[in-house]
Design goal:
- The structure is a homodimer of 332-residue chains.
- Chain A has eight helices and twelve strands.
- With 332 residues, chain A is α/β, with parallel strands linked by helices.
- Chain A folds into two domains: 8-183, Rossmann fold; 185-316, 2-Layer Sandwich (Hypothetical Protein Tm841, Chain: A,domain 3), CATH 3.30.1180.20.
- In chain A, α2 crosses α3 and α6 (231-245) crosses α7 (266-282).
- The mean pLDDT of chain A is 96.
Chain lengths: 332, 332
């Protein structure tokens, strides 16, 4: 295992401490695994909390800031945060207008967020939760009942975050988060595994001529192990199940998100985006907004995922709203 | 070789086409390997052109936009752009106020930018050039007479770009670019090699317990192949030569840039940044600004580099100025 770390057991806290030192005007760590906006709680604003296992950076702590999350609670690598941690984040961002939990659909995450929500309710904090389950690759998986939550999570955080920043109430923020969940679909591919530091060996191995289509963000098995193919063919294998699922139709305008899994360089992600753009144009689907980069990663895994979100005026306006976080900044 | 590409010979153009499709309001490709701001040329504004081999994305094309570069001319992977390409970029961004070339100190780059500058001068375009040579690792290298240009290049592009955007004339933009060159020092480490697509095998191999200190961004040999060490020790091995070189002194305020080489996850880069912050604090040096992420990469190489720039009011103000590019966006 070759990593730029000190002791594996200190990795998450050391990394969060480094993040806070790099973003002193944006966020702070108020307890182990609890990252909050520097100005939290904001009186009268709905608080947005997300979290999940570490190893997917910049998700979620990289999206804490004005226009997006109020808090993130990262667990150990590929491990759910504990209820006390989620509760601490919820309390830290409660400004009296309630708190929305944005939860990726993994059994441990869902359970721990539910427990934290009950504890918060006992404190008098109104909590709602949305569960993101955008991955069309598999129905149930190693860690889920139902579909996994992957790249769509970022889109939920951005759009719900914009609504909360603009002063929407809890029901309205929840409604918008659900609209994104309803309209977003994703699928990923891995060209390599990744190594959890505390384990020290790759989660799985792929032969030199193989890729895994439909991979999960923890290296869970996907749909099929197939021969490595040119980028245009990989895009077809990812995009067709996504398009068929919602389904997306000719005339739709979409946000197209090409996400790097960590180890795949940006030069390749733009090749993938170009191929996706062509494929969509061929189906009469217009890319109205886009995002290309490593945002929902699996440590150093090579590969990518595609997320499509069907847009309309309401979602487009919220996507375009200003945001300032470590990982996502709008210049307008 | 496992990459998300089509034919290796089409990689750069396909990737640039994808970038342009993803950033339609920001940039366009006007000729093969010539990426320019969507609104170029801007009448009366000094034009900024940079370029070099591809494989270092988002450098340089990811930094084209308001407040930074007017054009980028990426060559083939790890290969200098040709003079005609640099000339086309120079012509495309000349708004009558002259053009600054920002050149990383590699023999081929320097020669080809000089040739392009002569051709542009024959067209009546005033061109100045600054050569970035911030890497303290080695004096001469496989591809350079003198020091290599690495992470400091991004800082030159940002600060000179802010000055040009604010209306500074060519001499003033050149002066500021040289100030950054004078005050920035860098050094990198590799934990793995990377594979140039047209070659198909890694540039070099490291044993499981080895790292290469002082690596170049094309995998050129560094100072020493040494045993893999904890992050805090790696930071010491990179930072001490940097600090001794300028030298940086107690009381200095710096911009600290922890750059990922491509294959190293963000969770590790923040561990490195935290260790660097502590080391600097111990020397009485204050981190006033920071940047953490994969910005000057070597394809999928694992590793990182550290760049320090000594700040003062003038440089800090230009660093803080608004910018809007694919890779670097300010929210303020």
């Amino acid at each position: 295992m070759k990593k730029l770390i000190n002791r594996p057991e200190d990795l998450v806290e050391e990394s969060l401490a480094g993040l806070a030192l790099a973003q002193p005007d944006l966020l702070r760590v108020v307890a182990p695994g609890v990252v909050v906006r520097i100005d939290a709680p904001r009186r009268g604003k709905v608080g947005l909390v997300s979290g999940g296992g570490s190893g997917h950076e910049p998700l979620h702590a990289g999206f804490v800031g004005p226009g997006m999350l109020d808090a993130a609670c990262p667990g150990a690598v590929f491990t759910s945060p504990v209820p006390d941690q989620i509760l601490a984040a919820t309390r830290a961002v409660d400004g009296g207008a309630g708190v929305l939990h944005i939860v990726k659909n993994y059994t441990g995450d869902v359970m721990n967020f539910e427990m934290a929500a009950e504890l918060a309710a006992a404190d008098g904090i109104e909590v709602r939760a949305v569960t993101v389950a955008d991955d069309v690759a598999v129905q149930d998986s190693l860690y889920t009942a139902g579909r996994r939550g992957v790249g769509g999570t970022l889109l939920v955080e951005k759009i719900a975050g914009a609504a909360a920043e603009a002063g929407a109430d809890l029901a309205e923020v929840e409604r918008l988060a659900r609209r994104v969940c309803d309209g977003a679909r994703s699928m990923g591919v891995a060209l390599s595994g990744c190594t959890v530091p505390a384990v020290g060996r790759p989660t799985f191995e792929l032969a030199d001529d193989e890729m895994e289509i439909g991979i999960g963000i923890h290296g869970e098995p996907g749909r099929a192990r197939v021969p490595l193919a040119p980028a245009a063919e990989v895009v077809r294998q990812l995009a067709e199940p996504i398009l068929a699922d919602l389904p997306f139709r000719a005339g739709d305008g979409v946000l197209a998100f090409v996400n790097g899994m960590g180890g795949t360089p940006l030069i390749e992600l733009h090749v993938v985006f170009g191929a996706l753009h062509r494929l969509l144009a061929g189906r009469g689907i217009t890319v109205e907004r886009s995002l290309v980069g490593p945002y929902v990663t699996s440590l150093e895994m090579a590969g990518c995922s595609i997320t499509l979100l069907r847009l309309d005026d309401e979602l487009r306006r919220l996507w375009d709203a200003p945001v300032r976080t470590a990982a996502l900044r709008w210049g307008r």
